[in-house]
Amino acid sequence: MDPDVELALALADEADAITHPPFEDRRFTVDHKLDRSEVTEIDRAAETAIVARLRTERSEHGIIGEEYGASGAHSPWQWLIDPIDGTSGYVRGIPVWATLIALTHEENVVVAVVSAPALGRRWWASRGGGALVNGRPCQVSAVTDLAEAQVSVTLSDGWEELGLTGALVGLAMGARRARGFGDFWQHALVAEGALDVAIDAVGVAPYDVATVRLLVEEAGGTFTDRHGTPTHETGTAISTNGLLHDEVLRRLSRPG
User: Fold this and answer.
1) Alpha-carbon separation of residue 193 from 37, 42, 186, 190, 241 (angstroms)
2) Among residues 94, 100, 176, which one has the least CA distance to residue 143?
3) 219/162 Cα distance (integer angstroms)
């Protein structure tokens, strides 16, 4: 196994041991950040543990975490860490949350691990090495018609400010089935072939979507921002099986 993949999986093991027991036992306190999003001492403890190990084992790499920002070396190699993606669900007892760990080199994601212990699922990928869920290969779907597609849409204030809420609703209503799975899970389901399209909220950060970008790409799908640029850095994220991507972008190119 690639040493960086092996390390990322070990980091996920450490994070799971910190995050999962308090979730099951409901043992944590909740604070709010300036943007009113929730944060717990569990988020902070998980990120602290991951960063401490990276500083020991990859001291030449940089680190960017959701809770504590940038640290480590100034390097083209960067680890992006979201200790609990889906904290708002975590604090309410919803099991759809995960630790996200990505290694990037310049603008490319080269290793990704998504660990969701409350769901009993873990996804990982390496550049050129494919994507897996619980050790099984992932492959996107072969659906070619949006009217037959399963889609996930995350409505947000940002889409409303862009004047695109109507377009999102129209896309969802035109699909065979629409749901709002949210966060990492919708993109992981695209990688598995269970969903065909996932449209995230406006305002996502690189540590929110770098991992799932690589999962989707290595599973044979397409991941871009709303303008069609393959990136995890511009605040919007759309993943598809690739066959539906142009149609989705076309529908989101103008107000509904």
Assistant:
1) 31, 32, 11, 5, 8
2) 176
3) 30
Q: Contact, 118 vs 50, CB < 8 A?
A: no
CB–CB of 21/124 below 8 Å? no
Per-residue tokens: 65:
């975490």
CA distance 49 to 144: 43
**Whether residue 246 has pLDDT greater than 90:** yes
Structure-block tokens of residue 211: 């991992």
Q: Is it the case that residue 256 has pLDDT exceeding 60?
A: no
What is the rounded CA–CA span in Å between residue 1 and residue 61? 20
For 111-125, what is each residue's pLDDT tens digit?
Answer: 999 999 999 999 999
Q: What CATH number should be reported for the domain holding residue 195?
A: 3.40.190.80
- At 208, which helix (H) or strand (E)? helix 206-218
What is each CA distance from 137 to 36, 125, 134, 214, 242, in whole angstroms? 38, 10, 9, 14, 18
Number of H helices, E strands in the chain: 8, 15
| Chosen domain end from 96, 127, 158 | 127
**Full domain range(s) for residue 235:** 146-251
CB of 199 closer than 8 Å to CB of 245: no
